[in-house]
Design brief:
636 residues; alpha+beta; eight-stranded mixed sheet; four-stranded antiparallel sheet
């Protein structure tokens, strides 16, 4: 049988067995079966990124018959990553490397091109595209499908290095021959390009060694770069050009609040506020590269604002949001005539489904489900909440409760990583796994989280072990006060910065949590200057100085390894030996400190795993270990 037929048989068998059994740990731990689906410009073919035995395969199907025309399978050391149709027959793929000391795939900046029937396969950019290039010497990343040009794309080309300090170039790349033509060189390292609707780079935004953002503008290919406004330390992002190519949509933070959406007229140099949330930053909505038609705002649930409510894309998205019962809709791709679109639909109880939508008949046909083995009726709803801190900040968070249970529950608090990241409403495999076993899950976007404005972000600076932890503890108290959580059965579990918080919150309030789980966490703040990848970036020390502070006594006071004497909760340490973000030395230092104080702990370490485990068998082992640890200390 063909690849797709095999998958469809598996789907049918999985569906038949769903009603008879609970979702297993193994099922929650699996990678998606389908990662992405995109339709060709003429609508005749679909390109589907598939998981085949832990590796990604890019399969091409006829849209009507679903017959497979070709499958691009990974080699011993590579697989398909993100991909884009560049014309009716040809796709460009960002290659991922899967060999070496890491299980998790990573990009080496290579681009591969292939037709839907498997013809004219060629590595068109990267160290294997030309003889004599060193491994990872140059990286290429798609900037734009050049309008009116079926043979070339615009890429950002840069020398790859640990510091990332090279100056990028905008280059036209022939997708059949790999021939390059340089268009523009950026004026600053760490930067990128914003391209107008003619495929011309017009903006370049980069960060210097002091972590200050510089913005440059040019009228076109032959014109020099010039400074655009003042250098800024706050948040700024150029989203895309309006249809007139003279108006730019930007988001920026004023007075430290959430970023607003502005229209900036390049001729008059005046900006007009279009939309601003009082809580959260916007993110752009687009179908084609560099063509923004609206924004998404994640306050509690996702909401949408459309730039031109009469545009086809805006009308389509408004209609789709109303049709899928509160789930989030993303348009992955559309045909050139806008007659057909591929949709990705997801929500808290929907891990992701793909539909083919006919814009003329308004009919959506189900194509594939990312995790077809999960019975959505057995997944738990995730509800948002808001709380206010004693110093007046509004914190947004989420609770996921076991089906049919609302009170006096064993509860796991899961602070997110970063800390400059955030949690969103949607499907979360970890939260769903715990809820399926009877645990309530609490997540909160504490101060220092990204997505809520510069002032909120900076409120977390130098407060990693202090006020950030107070916010996490406040959300914990909220869960108890509302009757959801049993205060005698609380555990805290986090990944990366969340792993740090799992230990630090347990030290800050030793009587709150009955257990603490640190997964690839950092536990010695001064060590961040010596170990890990922050030191490899030219502005890494400046970033650490700004976010951690320079008072070594304070750093030690906020480091779990130096405060184990205050800790009561037993600890589970999970780490990958090849972690270069939260270096393995952090886990070793924590273990040594626990040993010194004869503090109870358990230990799970894997080689060839980095910052968060990737190999399915290791993820399964982690999840079983976490559940056993929770059951031991706060179980039913």
């Amino acid at each position: 049988m063909s690849l797709i037929k095999n998958i469809l048989v598996f789907t049918a068998l999985a569906i038949l067995s769903l009603a008879a059994q609970a979702i297993t740990v193994e099922e929650f731990s699996k990678h998606p079966q389908f990662y992405d689906v995109k339709i060709s410009p003429d609508g005749k073919h679909l390109a589907v990124l598939i998981n085949t035995e832990g590796r990604k395969t890019l399969a091409f199907l006829e849209t009507d018959s679903k017959k497979v025309t070709y499958a691009l399978r990974g080699g011993n050391r590579d697989q398909a990553g993100s991909y884009y149709w560049v014309n009716n027959e040809r796709v460009v793929v960002q290659v991922q490397r899967v060999s070496g000391r890491f299980e998790r795939p990573g990009s080496a900046g290579e681009l591969y091109a292939v037709n839907f029937d498997g013809k004219k396969k060629k590595m068109i950019f990267g160290y294997r595209s030309k003889p004599g290039l060193a491994l990872s010497a140059e990286g290429g990343f798609l900037l734009d499908n050049l309008p009116g040009d079926d043979k070339r794309i615009l890429i950002e080309k840069r020398t790859l290095s640990k510091s990332g300090g090279s100056i990028p170039q905008a280059v036209k790349l022939n997708v059949y021959t790999g021939r390059e033509n340089r268009v523009k060189r950026a004026p600053i390292a760490y930067g990128g390009f914003l391209v107008d609707h003619t495929g011309t780079p017009r903006f370049s935004i980069g960060t210097d060694e002091d972590h200050v953002t510089h913005i440059y503008y040019t009228e076109g290919k032959g014109e020099d770069w010039q400074k655009f406004g003042e250098d800024i330390e706050g948040e700024f992002r150029a989203l895309g050009f309006a249809e007139d190519n003279n108006t730019v949509y930007i988001t920026k933070s004023g007075n430290g609040g959430p970023m607003g959406l502005y229209e900036y007229d390049i001729t008059t140099k005046k900006s007009t506020l279009v939309y601003q949330s009082q809580l959260a930053n916007p993110s752009p909505l687009s179908v084609d590269l560099n063509q923004v038609y609206g924004i998404r705002v994640d306050e509690d649930y996702p909401s949408f604002y459309f730039l031109n409510k009469d545009s086809l894309e805006s009308k389509l998205h408004q209609k789709l949001v109303a049709s899928f019962n509160g789930d989030t809709v993303r348009v992955t791709s559309m045909t050139a005539d806008r007659g057909k679109a591929v949709l990705h639909v997801s929500g808290d109880r929907n891990p992701g489904e793909f539909y083919l939508y006919d814009t003329k008949t308004n009919k959506a046909t189900h194509l594939l489900s990312s995790r077809n083995w999960l019975d959505k009726s057995k997944l738990a709803p995730t509800e948002p909440f808001r709380i206010k801190t004693p110093d007046g900040l509004v914190l947004n968070g989420y609770m996921t409760l076991p089906l049919g249970k609302t009170a006096n529950l064993p509860t796991v608090v899961i602070p997110h990583g970063g800390p400059h990241a955030r949690d969103y409403w949607g499907y979360n495999a970890g939260a769903q796994l715990l809820a399926s076993k009877g645990y309530a899950v609490v997540q909160v976007n504490f101060r220092g989280s990204s997505g809520y404005g510069q002032a909120f972000l900076e409120a977390g600076y130098t407060q990693w072990g202090a006020k950030i932890q107070d916010d996490i503890l406040l959300a914990t108290k909220y869960a108890v006060q509302t009757g959801v959580a049993d205060k005698e059965r609380l555990c805290i579990y986090g990944v990366s910065f969340g792993g740090y918080s799992a230990l630090q919150a347990s030290i800050r309030e030793p009587d709150t949590f009955k257990c603490s789980i640190g997964y690839v966490g950092v536990y010695d703040l001064p060590m961040l200057y010596e170990e890990g990848d922050a030191k490899d970036v030219k502005w890494g020390d400046a970033y650490l100085d700004k976010t951690l502070g320079t008072n070594k006594a304070e750093l030690i006071a906020q480091s779990p390894v130096h405060n184990i004497d205050k800790l009561k909760a037993p600890v589970l340490i999970i780490h990958g030996e090849e972690d270069n973000r939260a270096h393995f030395e952090h886990a070793l230092a924590l273990r040594d400190a626990l040993d010194e104080h004869k503090h109870p702990y358990e230990w799970l370490v894997k080689d060839k795993e980095g910052h968060g485990f990737y190999k399915e068998e290791n993820i399964i082992e982690v999840n079983h270990k976490v559940l056993a640890f929770l059951d031991k200390y706060i179980g039913h």
